[in-house]
UniProtKB/TrEMBL annotation:
<dbReference type="InterPro" id="IPR011044">
    <property type="entry name" value="Quino_amine_DH_bsu"/>
</dbReference>
<feature type="signal peptide">
    <location>
        <begin position="1"/>
        <end position="26"/>
    </location>
</feature>
<dbReference type="Pfam" id="PF05935">
    <property type="entry name" value="Arylsulfotrans"/>
</dbReference>
<dbReference type="GO" id="GO:0004062">
    <property type="term" value="F:aryl sulfotransferase activity"/>
</dbReference>
<protein>
    <recommendedName>
        <fullName>LisH domain-containing protein</fullName>
    </recommendedName>
</protein>
<feature type="region of interest" description="Disordered">
    <location>
        <begin position="371"/>
        <end position="404"/>
    </location>
</feature>
<keyword id="KW-0732">Signal</keyword>
<dbReference type="InterPro" id="IPR010262">
    <property type="entry name" value="Arylsulfotransferase_bact"/>
</dbReference>
Amino acid sequence: MAPSALPKAVLAVLATVGALLVGARLAHPAATLPDALLAAVQRLNDHDMSPSSVDAEAGGNGTVTYDDFLAIEDVRAFLKMKGLSTKDYGDHPTLFKYVPREVTMSKTEKLMRGELGEAASAGYVAYAVAYYDGSENTASYLIVQDMEGSLLQVAPLYGEVLRNKGLSHANEGEIYKGIGLKNYNSTHLLVAFGKESALTGPRALFDVDSGAWIELCDGESNDSHDIQMAYKGAALWQADGRTVTKKFSAADGSELAEFQMTDIADPNHVQLVEEDKYAFVSSRQTDGIVRVHVATGDVVYTIGGEYGDFEIFDAAGRKWKKGTSLWVGQHNAEYFGDDEFCLFDNQEASASSTLNAFDVASTDASRSAMAATSPAPALSGGKAAKTSSRSRACLRPDSLSGLS
Ligand SMILES: *[C@@H]1O[C@H](CO)[C@@H](O)[C@H](O)[C@H]1NC(C)=O
Ligand SMILES: *[C@@H]1O[C@H](CO)[C@@H](O)[C@H](O)[C@H]1NC(C)=O
Ligand SMILES: *[C@@H]1O[C@H](CO)[C@@H](O)[C@H](O)[C@H]1NC(C)=O
């Protein structure tokens, strides 16, 4: 796998239903987890989901500090396992290797509410962060905050704590990173861990209310970049980072199905769509987002990069010819529905990664082709995809400043 060119701290956001725009800023020592994700959990059951006309810009921007983290029992337990007792908490250089000094959440209320309206305020923001002190990861957390920035759940991703909370195969003394992070249902998150410095690890469900873990796949490991539950049955999909995406039994981790992919290199993120008939595969080394027919592994079409089938127009209206790369070495290309993708444009070797949202196709023809449930040869005529600074469900690049 190619080395990641991500900035030191990278937080991307996934929204469940409708729109969410939230940024979390971590003060030094910052999060250093490549490919960390934010996920939003909407409490759909508890709130009226009717559209709201409320369009207020007002709303709190919360900051929590290490004191808030130290008030949490699991955090103190983690510190104790690391040899820090309460009387050591005043030793800030040491403390800040294990606990964030400050997390600031800022949001643009209107964008956060989006099509959900007022109900969006009852959502959560979940993200995984890890601290790298220059030689090793010393701390790693899954953090859930409400939309005002209050801490709702803080899970230290440390072997012993994880074991105590239900992840029975976690190794004591090892740090785990919450690399693949998705919504599972309205109360649980789905996590693909990376163990220590590896980009592979176990998979689990996290109960946001209780902080308990449910181990999946009998504690077996796989690639941690991405994870998705299958459309049917207790199974999940993960890419292997090379050429194959596999379906695993959530019960025992055995392989149930796979699809091979051609003209794809470093497929780090995959979303299965349309009842698992098709997949959007992010092919990092070819700068492409590839629609694959799952049963055959055939490429339906590719957006971007050397195998790209479409002209792409960037936010400035500039045309990128077929076969050229607007984004380079992207991470976490994520299909959000409604012809919209979100991705981290690493620009490969450059230090300036940006998070972009783009709409595929401004024309009716290609829009309907995108929505088609069968392979869409009409698209090979070269319809336009259009990048956009309109971030319906993504962090905007400017809200990421200060994170690196
Ligand atoms: C919250 O932060 C955002 C982004 O920095 C800013 O635009 C907004 O005005 C802030 N809102 C409040 C109430 O401070
Ligand atoms: C979410 O899934 C978990 C694990 O299967 C389950 O225990 C929980 O009840 C589910 N939550 C809802 C609201 O269905
Ligand atoms: C993924 O799971 C399969 C089946 O358990 C296993 O053979 C393979 O080594 C795993 N891959 C990784 C990267 O852990």
